Amino acid sequence: MKLEIYTPDQTVFEGDITSVTVPGTSGSFEVLSGHAPIISTLESGKVTVRGTDKTANTFQIKGGVVEVLQDKIVVLADGLAE
Length: 82
Description:
Blueprint: E1 2-7, E2 10-24, E3 27-32, E4 38-51, E5 56-69, E6 72-77
Parallel strand pairs: 1-6
Antiparallel strand pairs: 1-2, 2-3, 2-4, 4-5, 5-6
């Protein structure tokens, strides 16, 4: 799967992943390969990215939107928490 995370002023992450967990408005949820298409709003919280090399990265976002379509995930974050 491909993941892209953007804020208004930077590209935070672009790459191949095995899964990502995002802070949805109704609770956190994980996206795996083959996930149904979805668009969801995001709360402020932690985005956990699991890479194809078994590493995990986390990013604190200030809310935003996520779109999942055909194994491509795009997170448009309002910003990164400091």
